[in-house]
Design brief:
The complex is a heterodimer of chains A (112) and B (109). Chain A is mainly beta. In chain A, 0% of the residues lie in helices and 55% in strands. Chain B has 109 residues and is mostly beta strands. The chains are: A mainly beta (112), B mainly beta (109). At the A-B interface, strand 4, strand 5, strand 9 and strand 10 of A face strand 4 of B.
Chain lengths: 112, 109
């Protein structure tokens, strides 16, 4: 089965450091989503792209978070500078407009 | 997107059918009902979706009431591996999934 690949699976970093999370969507999928999951807030939509263009990033803290799609095979989510409250599992998902989305296994981020 | 209401938790005996309800009384005519589940520490997994007709696939069945204000996900023969959080989501085509709190299903031996 085709998979969404996220790297790294785990990341521990110190407060103030830059963090970059990567996502390889399923080949042919034109929509990419970024979600964040914490115990308190559950699964939250951060941003999503269609055909590499951002459609909605209203869920993302703009001052420190940025999301890009340098090409159709790579999506990135950066946090700079990172803070302890950013500790969470970050999921990437990909899909087509009229089809269900497929999620990756997530990046578990711990900021100390 | 229309909001959904699900019970926070349910139990089901292994081998029995698990029936998970969802209310979505404000659903619009062009919005679909989607079901996803999340097994501990894994990414959400797609189960099934429908617009107004009942749907069945290898994982589950989806029963949508005629007025579309509620639906039920049916796992016909629950196994221990079906223990997970199940999310009912209503959304239009092309939009993102907005997850609520879901129903935590515990399948017991």
């Amino acid at each position: 089965d085709a998979r969404v690949t996220q790297t790294p699976r785990h990341k521990v970093t110190e407060m103030g450091q830059e963090v970059t999370m990567r996502c390889q969507p399923i080949l042919g999928h034109n929509t990419v989503f970024w979600y964040r999951q914490t115990m308190m807030q559950g699964l939250e939509l951060l941003a999503y792209f269609r055909n590499r263009a951002p459609l909605d990033d209203s869920g993302m803290p703009k001052d420190r978070f940025s999301a890009e799609m340098p090409d159709a095979t790579l999506a990135t989510l950066k946090i700079q500078p990172s803070e302890p409250r950013d500790s969470a599992v970050y999921f990437c998902a990909s899909g087509l407009v009229a089809s269900p989305s497929t999620f990756g296994s997530g990046t578990r981020l711990t900021v100390v | 997107d229309a909001k959904t209401t699900q019970p926070p938790s349910m139990d089901c005996a292994e081998g029995r059918a698990a029936n998970l309800p969802c209310n979505h009384s404000t659903i619009s005519g062009n919005e679909y009902v989607y079901w996803y589940r999340q097994i501990h520490s894994q990414g959400p997994q797609y189960i099934i979706h429908g617009l107004k007709n009942n749907e069945t696939n290898e994982m589950a069945s989806l029963i949508i009431t005629e007025d579309r204000k509620s639906s039920t996900l049916i796992l016909p023969h629950a196994t221990l591996r079906d223990t997970a959080v199940y999310y009912c989501i209503v959304k239009g085509s092309g939009y993102a999934l907005n997850f609520g709190k879901g129903t935590s299903l515990l399948v017991t031996p």
